[in-house]
Specification:
about 110 residues; two-stranded antiparallel ribbon; five-stranded antiparallel beta sheet; mainly beta
């Protein structure tokens, strides 16, 4: 009670077909990472009614930036922490801290 874990993921096996002169057929489309995973954790602190601490991490796999599949951008992970207070059904204050890591694979 007071602890929530939410997550999800995507596996994408994208492939180019019917390209001009079939030059790039079978290659991966640009901007299509094979994996993307997210995880969220929220914790309601009993010691401070209405206060919730949260953390989130989102991983995005490397991806091609050209249809010939010769240029890539590395994978990355975004992380965010958050604290919020709620009175009744109204959020009174919210503060965020975002942490970025680029690339996550090195």
């Amino acid at each position: 009670e007071g602890l929530r874990l939410i997550g999800g993921g995507t596996y994408l096996d994208a492939e180019l077909t019917k390209t001009q002169d079939e030059v790039d057929d079978g290659n991966t489309p640009t901007g299509a990472p094979e994996f993307q995973v997210n995880l969220n954790l929220e914790w309601d602190l009993r010691a401070v009614p209405g206060l919730t601490l949260a953390a989130r991490a989102i991983y995005t796999d490397s991806q091609y930036i050209d249809t010939a599949n010769t240029l890539t951008i590395p994978s990355w992970t975004r992380r965010r922490t958050r604290a919020r207070t709620v009175t009744g059904s109204v959020t009174r204050a919210s503060s965020y801290a975002r942490l970025r890591s680029w690339p996550s694979g090195s």
